[in-house]
Structures are given as C-alpha cells and as structure tokens.
Amino acid sequence: MRLSTVAHAAGTSAAVLDRSTWRALPAGDLSALLAAVPVRQVAGLAGDALVDAVPVLPLPAPGKVICCGLNYADHIRETGRELPSYPTLFPKYADTLTGPEADIVLPAGLQVDWEAELAVVVGATLRRADRATALAGIAGYTVANDISVRDWQYRTLEWFQGKAWDASTPVGPVVVTPDEVDPTAGLEVICRVNGEQVQRDTTKTLVFDAADLLAYISTFTVLRPGDLVLTGTPGGVGVAREPKRFLADGDIVETEISGIGTLRNTVRLTR
C-alpha cells in the first residue's frame, strides 16, 4: 500500500492510493490513523475517492523523531571516522518536519547542506524489541532529507542545534508498506541539487538497517505507531567536498528513493 496525508477541497485526510486515486481513510492525517488502527487493517477502511487530492507531510505529529548519523560506509569514510560499533543517534522534533514540496525557509548566511535519507515509520509499540519483533513492527518507509545547518552543527560536539531548525526536514510524499519495498534488497537513495546528482547509494550498504535501529532504540525508549526513524545519509554531502559547497537561495533539492518517491523542495534564504 501507499499511504499519506492529502490535502483536498474539504481539508486534509489520511488516504490510501488506489491505482491513481486517493481514497479517504477515517482520520484527519496519517499520524492519527496509525495511532488508532494497525496498518494491516488499513486497506479495508478505504472510503470515497478524494478529488484533486495532493500529498502533504504524511506524518505531521510523530511522538518521536530519531535520526541515525554516520550509517553509510562511504559517508563515514568521508568524515575520516571508523565504522561504528553502535548507532550514532540524535533527536528531532515534529516541528522540524515539512512537506514533500514545501519551501525550506531559513535565514540567509547559514551553511545549509543536504542529506538524503530513507525514513522508517513505526507501526507497533516497541519496547526492548528483538530484531524480528522490530522488523514486524515497521509500518512502512518514506523519503526524508535531513537538511543540516553545518555552522551551527559544529559549534559543539553535539549536533542537535544544527539539525532541529523548524520546517527544515522534508518528508514524503508517501509511506510505502513493507510488502512493496525491502531496503535490505537495496533501494537507491539519490539527491540532486538543481538537477545535478550529488548523492547516490543503495540501502544495501547501511551499517545498521531499519530493524537494527528500531531494536536498538527501543532498548532505551519506547517507540509507538507513527514515530519516525531516519536511517542516515550516503556520501556526497556538501560539507565534505573540497571546496565545501552549501545550498543557496533558490536552489532546488530533489530527494529520490527508488520504489517510494521523490521530494522536491526549494531553498529560500531570507534576510
């Protein structure tokens, strides 16, 4: 299934894609739906067709957004680090998320960088889950870009202040259930800036895959339906280039994952 939150003439609704038609699901958004209904029951709840429906931020109210850094071997090498024994984790807030075609609006003068990522949507309550339980608890996968403000990120050893700017992390356009995509088989993760490919890798090369991350995280904090886990970015980020390269006002960032979809966001740096 392909699920999302869509905007239409009457407002917003959780919805499931039926061929090329979005059909309403009984909640105002996908966050509310996953909190109320197991994902395996969603297909039977499809209702009326929604005319002129457009996908927006699919998960507007996750309880937790947890991100993994340094999770592709080539990206780890470009930072000059060794492969990790444990995931490098940091949190975001729901306020950091924005829609699949929304502008990314930040103050001028910042070092703004791209980070294409596969995101995992939690579909069950997970507490100290083993790998098999974590895998079974995945509702689906979506596309994200962990847009990062590098000059703030590297002010201290902690990354948080460079990763949590409001409305800076596009997500979407859809959540695809695990029966349709399998990251362990290899999904291509691609980022383009103004049409130029700047990142390309496959989820086969993740150091810690989706099930690993959910099991590990659930050891110290409970995960609930609708929570979001970003799995890290491949090599090719701007800060690791020589010379360094950052996003400029008007740049268009496209983030694509095979089998899921594409984000298309314009950077707006305002004074």
Describe the 3D structure.
With 271 residues, this protein is mainly β. The chain contains six helices and 18 strands. The strands form three sheets. Strands 1, 2, 3, 4, 5, 6, 7, 10, 11, 13 and 16 form an eleven-stranded mixed sheet that branches. Strands 8-18-17-14-15 form a five-stranded mixed sheet, with no helix packed on it. Strands 9-12 form a two-stranded antiparallel ribbon. The termini are far apart. The mean pLDDT is 96.
Number of strands: 18
Point out poorly predicted stretches.
none
Q: Can you tell me the overall shape?
A: globular
Multimeric organization = single chain
Structural class: mainly beta
Gyration radius from CA atoms, angstroms: 18 Å
Write the element-wise H/E pattern from the N-terminal end onward: EEEHEEHEEEEEHEEHHEEEHEEE
Q: Biggest β-sheet, characterized?
A: 11 strands, mixed
Average pLDDT: 96
Number of separate helices: 6
Distance between the termini: 42 Å
What portion of the residues fall into strands of 2 or more residues? 35-45%
Helix content: 10-25%
